[in-house]
Design goal:
The protein is an alpha+beta fold. β8 and β9 form a beta hairpin.
Length: 368
């Protein structure tokens, strides 16, 4: 097994850059596009600057209908929100969006800072990124992965930090979806639980891909990238390889859980166990806890019912409206122990935006 460098499949950055440049060159050749001609068109349309080709051609995923998406880094400051420039030239559709070198440098520093924080703080920074920063998350990822037309990858050294931040963000989303899976199952939602379980698998795939340095924000490519990694088998270590095999096992069998004959068969515990295994195998944490937090206030409503009113909406709950998991956090592996009524109430509140989940990470693995 290779060292855990944080670069794609633990390749040296020079080899990774060479592979990606080969993918880009093949893509451009397939379109009969000359890099020098492209660079000239861009200078003519948007001015001088460092030009990066991004997205599917870089990752070897482009097809005959893929656009040419560029990001341009300029020396001058830029104010306000960014709008991409669309260029149609000789039958080709090109898009380019520009950012200043100063704001990019600030974002790259922020990547390093977030990667060094505890997982929950990393995710908080990731989720608030687009409200505070340009380039936004997606564009920052594109820049780090981007290839210039002369075959260099100017920002590839930030790929390990990018992978850490993106992996933790996807993993936390998977953990939240695991909770929803368990709540839906306890509430008797035999189909709803499967929908949440699909989300668990998708985000665990993306977390493990990012953990291996394969970072790409576009969700439609998750499964294709995952099956490519499985086929290559270039796992970081045996523990990651084992959890990847479990992801594959559940992925291949999830459609069967929609069959009527599977309605009474529990499935949530397997997804809880898988998510915890990924947390540990990736080195993110040793244990995970879950707590619920109301986002509004409980009001009397009708006899035997209460109304939880929140800024984003409200939900009617039975009795006094007390929600489980609000008094104290529980271990993720205990989440399947809620009763049907408790689970249904919390699930309704989460769906209405009247409650939210708080995920906690511990250093030590829980013991039985």
């Amino acid at each position: 097994m290779g060292m855990t460098s944080g670069f794609l499949h633990d390749l040296p950055p020079e080899e990774l850059t060479s592979r990606r440049h080969a993918s880009v060159s093949a893509f451009l050749a397939g379109r009969s596009l000359d890099p020098a001609w492209l660079a000239g068109i861009m200078r003519e349309q948007v001015g001088e600057g460092q030009l990066l080709l991004t997205s599917s051609p870089v990752h070897g995923l482009a097809n005959a209908t893929s656009d040419l998406d560029f990001i341009r880094i300029q020396e001058e400051e830029i104010e306000g929100p960014r709008i991409s420039t669309k260029i149609f030239e000789e039958g080709h559709h090109l898009e380019v969006v520009s950012f200043s070198r100063t704001e990019l440098a600030s974002n790259l520093d922020e990547l390093n800072r977030l990667a060094a924080l505890a997982p929950d703080a990393t995710v908080a920074g990731f989720r608030s990124w687009d409200k505070q920063r340009e380039p936004r998350r997606k564009q920052t990822e594109r820049i780090v992965n981007g290839i210039s037309l002369d075959g260099t990858a100017p920002y590839v050294e930030w790929l390990p930090a990018l992978g850490t931040v993106w992996a933790r963000a996807s993993l936390q989303t998977a953990l939240e979806q695991v909770v929803h899976t368990a709540l839906a199952e306890a509430a008797g939602e035999t189909r709803g639980r499967v929908g949440y379980a699909y989300n668990v698998l998708l985000h665990l795939m993306d977390a493990l891909l990012s953990h291996h340095g394969d970072v790409y924000t576009t969700r439609k490519w998750y499964v294709l990238r995952w099956t490519r990694l499985v086929a290559e088998g270039s796992w970081r270590d045996e523990r990651v390889q084992a959890v990847a095999a479990d992801v594959e096992r559940l992925r291949k069998g999830i459609a069967d859980t929609l069959d009527a004959s599977a309605a009474d068969q529990p499935m949530a515990q397997a997804y809880v166990a898988l998510a915890l295994d990924v947390v540990r195998a990736s080195g993110t944490a040793g244990s995970v806890s879950v707590r619920a937090e109301m986002t509004g206030s409980m009001q009397p409503f009708l006899p035997g019912a209460s109304l939880l009113v929140a800024p984003g909406g409200g939900v009617v709950l039975p009795g006094t409206g007390e929600l489980p998991l609000t008094a104290r956090a529980v271990g993720l592996d205990d989440i399947t122990g809620l009763g049907s009524s408790e689970a249904a109430s919390l699930l309704r509140a989460l769906r209405a935006g009247a409650a939210r989940l708080r995920i906690g990470y511990g250093e030590e693995e829980a013991t039985a």
